[in-house]
Design a protein that fits this description.
Layout (H helix, E strand, L loop, with lengths): L6 E4 L2 E4 H16 L3 H5 L2 E10 L8 H4 L1 E5 L1 H12 L11 E15 L8 E14 L2 E16 L2 E11 L15
Parallel strand pairs: 3-8
Antiparallel strand pairs: 1-2, 3-4, 5-6, 6-7, 7-8
Length: 177
């Protein structure tokens, strides 16, 4: 068994697992507080946000479908809508509580064209959601590509992969996993 790295490097900078954990924990707090402008600031311009369908096999996002495949423009539009009263499914917002564990630095992915490399990070998540008298738990794993922006980490790709075989009828992913 290969032990995951406890440090990685992006553009010559050493990134520790603790650095990544702090980044992911801060993101969880931001999302639970519905601070979407702060959440968007965690992405580099041009980043992607993806939530594959529950039958995703790990290859093409288009082969099995997806719940979310936002490019940068759609991601910004999603944030704008969630902040407005037009997000009827989340007005008032759900109460959420995120738990993140098993954070792993997986591999260094070289950049193209001389740009800094990327760091692949995986983690397990549980998002508890209270809405309309119901309490649901969404379980899965994160598979992210991170870059640095000065001293800060940023998402190049934020992917939330649900561990569910299927979502019950009437389930809504109107919030950010």
């Amino acid at each position: 068994m290969t032990v995951p790295a406890t440090t990685g490097h992006i553009g010559g900078r050493e990134i520790t697992r603790a650095d990544v954990e702090d980044f992911l924990y801060a993101e969880a707090d931001i999302l639970d507080a519905w601070k979407y402008d702060d959440w968007l600031a965690l992405f580099e311009p041009g980043a992607r946000f993806e939530v594959p369908a529950t039958d995703w096999t790990g290859t093409s996002m288009h082969a099995s479908g997806s719940f979310v495949t936002d490019d940068w423009d759609l991601l910004r539009a999603r944030v704008k809508r969630l902040k407005s009263r037009k997000a009827h499914a989340e007005n008032p917002p759900s109460r959420t509580h995120r738990m993140i564990s098993n954070v792993r630095l997986r591999e260094h992915v070289p950049g193209e064209g001389g740009e800094p490399g990327l760091l692949r990070v995986t983690a397990a998540f549980i998002v508890h959601r209270a809405r309309d008298g119901e309490f649901d738990a969404y379980v899965g794993r994160y598979d992210h590509l991170l870059v640095t922006d000065g001293d800060a980490l940023r998402f190049r790709l934020r992917r939330a992969v649900l561990g569910h075989e299927h979502l019950p009828a009437g389930s809504r992913l109107s919030f950010i996993l």
